[in-house]
Automatic annotation (TrEMBL):
This is Thiol-disulfide oxidoreductase protein. It comes from Rhizobium grahamii CCGE 502. Residues 25-230 form the Thioredoxin domain. Coiled coil: none annotated. InterPro entries: TAT_signal, Thioredoxin-like_fold, Thioredoxin-like_sf, Thioredoxin_domain.
Length: 230
């Protein structure tokens, strides 16, 4: 074999080694970037899962090995980010596969967030009745996707009315929902319970198999946590 060809082969070999090393480095960096979230406390999941003031808004099998309870506020940008970038993928990967039961609980930080929760809880055609999970989750998703449209609007009521009409509300059913004092009291009671009994003081907060986690999570981060529990 000519020396030039041998040198070329060596250069190719060295180049291949360098490329492989770079690939491993990138892989290691990617792996290191997915760090397991650290809990900020323990919770009694048996107590967490006892019935509250409102019917549970849940998706997934009741006997799923992992239970996630999310306390959130509808005007919280971190909550909106989680639900527009992470929730759907987690639902596909784990909830629909029977591995996770996902529960949403109300933790409004302001009157506008409370109003948004009330609208999600109301049946649009019969506002005196509560919505089902099949109505609740799509309403929450829509409000989060359009959060900037209504959460900071000068006319909050008008902005929420326009959003609600997309979900089937009329101005009359919208008004009846938002003047339901019992429902408002129940939403506030849900928040108080989360705060007093389970140490929730920020949103989003996730109670997952006996541990409490605060802050937004990416798909990779939550997936890593769920996988560690399966």
């Amino acid at each position: 074999m000519p020396i030039s060809e041998m040198q070329l082969t060596k250069r190719q070999l060295l180049g291949g080694v360098a490329a492989a090393t770079a690939t491993l480095a990138v892989f290691s960096t990617a792996q290191a970037a997915v760090e397991m979230p650290k809990p900020d406390g323990d919770v009694d999941m048996a107590a967490v899962l006892k019935p509250g003031e409102l019917p549970e808004m849940a998706l997934g099998k009741e006997d799923a090995p992992v239970t996630i309870v999310e306390y959130m506020s509808m005007t919280c940008p971190h909550c909106a980010h989680f639900h527009t970038t992470t929730f759907d993928e987690i639902k596909k990967k784990y909830v629909d596969a029977g591995k996770v039961r996902f529960i949403i609980r109300e933790f409004p930080f302001d009157p506008r967030a409370a109003a948004a929760f009330m609208l999600a809880r109301c049946n649009p055609s019969k506002p005196e009745e509560l919505s089902t999970a099949e109505q609740y989750f799509p309403m929450v998703a829509m409000l989060f996707k359009q959060q900037q449209t209504w959460a900071a609007a000068d006319d909050g009521r008008g902005a929420l009315l326009q959003m609600s009409k997309l979900a089937g509300f009329t101005e009359d059913s919208f008004t009846k929902c938002l003047t339901n004092q019992k429902l408002l009291d129940q939403v506030n009671a849900t928040r108080e319970r989360g705060s007093k009994e389970f140490g929730v003081n920020a949103t989003p907060t996730f109670l997952i198999n006996g541990k409490r986690y605060s802050g937004d999570m990416t798909v990779d981060t939550m997936s890593a946590l769920i996988d560690s529990l399966l």
